[in-house]
Amino acid sequence: MNDTIAAIATAQGIGAISIIRVSGSKAVDIVSKIFTNKNFKTSSSHTIHYGYIIYKDEKIDEVLVSKMLAPKTFTREDIVEINTHGGITTTNKVLEILLSEGCRLAEPGEFSKRAFLNGRIDLTEAEGIIDLINAKTEKAHKMAISQIGGKASKLIKNLRNDLSHILANIEVNLNYPEYEDIEEMTVSKINDSMDSLEEKINKIICESKNGELLKNGIKTVILGRPNVGKSSLLNNLIGEEKAIVTEIQGTTRDSVEATLIIDNIILNLIDTAGIRKTDDIVESKGVEKSLKLAKEADLILLVLDYSEPLTKEDEKILNEIKNKKYITIINKCDLNKKINDENLENKIYVSAYKNINMESISLKIKELFNLEKLETEDMSYLGSARSQAILNKIKVAIKEVKNGLSNGATLDMIEIDLKNIWNLLGEIIGETYEEELIDELFSRFCVGK
User: pLDDT tens track of the chain, all 449 residues?
Assistant: First the structure.
């Protein structure tokens, strides 16, 4: 943390402008050595200066240089940003010069890591930055902005403060019983506090799972027996001929994947091999894979044939997916009806080939996942698997406290379990952390961020 780091902060390639970011105690001194503007070094913070980068009497580029002094910067260190003309050669040359003059090349995510270590952001806000960079929809963008803004952090801090109040009162009850004006922490009061905490944690977990669907998309598997129109359905949805369509059964022998955004919903579509008994070794492997993917899916689009009666294969698939979220898509509705569909659920009649009623699929998905509500809801969203794993640990810890209370555990034993919950909440926002975890988290950032 004592050295000064530098990296290219913009995407590599040809463009109007590239930005090289420098952060650390020597940032201003190092840039002053190669920048022609003599007023730059003594100028005030948050100013922009025009001049040239010159190295060994060679004019490298005409630039604008921004100067921002600690602590009012992203890293809470001195930061200098050099705006060069975009281009791989020029940008790399300026970075190379900075490294030769005393900077060290920044590691992936090191600017954000310094912002965290210097108290500028916490871990949930850092994870929000990753989500913002990777956002694929407007809703994902809004959720990431909310997380960067500290909404989730504030919620976790409030929960920790509530626990701190309980722990402080227990401490006084145990060690200073003579203080009569301190609230007595009874079993009933602690139980009520745990009920309230559990309700809030469950709400965060639920909203975070819903947020995951909006952020990362719904893993959607297209399932059905051969020749019901699965590949035609995929091609229609994505608007291109990605899957091969023929009248020969077993044409699709492996999964075909595509990503589609419908009304701000990301569908990670997987077209699978037709489900049927077969002696073909390759096709049978495809069938096995189809059933495995169906078990892992968030949503199944079960395709049936409007012009044929239900078969044993259809009924077997329906039985396999009865506990999953699924939509029954009855395809080829432009043909004569032969299917017996009275007992089928969540059914839609379409013709993928003739593009009939295809818009009803997205409407049904919205209804099934309650996405209309999710898209307008202001969620207490924690986007990382790390945070969600800790929340599940907290749920277990709350149950341990409740079990201890019902089994007559002493107040000092209950205090230990409550401190464990308090520490777990601290892990979410980074009040307590392991160095290895921090290194792993920020390594997922791009260099220069």
Answer: 789 999 999 987 788 899 999 999 999 999 999 999 999 999 999 999 999 999 998 999 999 999 999 999 999 999 999 999 988 899 999 999 999 999 999 999 999 999 999 989 888 888 888 888 777 777 777 777 777 777 888 888 999 988 888 888 887 777 666 555 556 677 888 888 899 999 999 988 887 877 777 777 888 888 888 888 888 888 888 775 544 333 434 444 345 778 877 767 788 888 766 555 555 555 556 666 767 777 888 888 988 998 999 988 888 888 888 888 899 999 999 999 999 888 888 899 999 889 999 889 888 888 887 776 665 555 666 777 788 889 999 999 999 999 988 898 888 888 899 999 999 999 988 887 667 767 777 777 777 77
Q: Which CATH number fits domain 217-373: 3.20.20.370, 3.40.190.10, 3.30.450.200, 3.40.50.300?
A: 3.40.50.300
Range 151-213+384-430: architecture per CATH:
Up-down Bundle (1.20)
Cβ atoms 157, 165 nearer than 8 A: no
| Ranges of CATH 1.20.120.430 domains, the chain | 151-213+384-430
Where, residue-wise, is CATH 3.30.1360.120 in the chain? 5-117
pTM equals: 0.70
> What CA–CA distances, in Å, run from 170 to 160, 177, 426?
15, 10, 20
- CATH of the structural domain 5-117, one choice from 3.20.20.150, 3.30.1360.120, 1.10.940.10, 3.40.640.10: 3.30.1360.120
Core vs surface per residue 148-183: b (16+ CB within 10 A) or e: bebbbbebbbebbebbeebbebbebbeeeeeeeeee
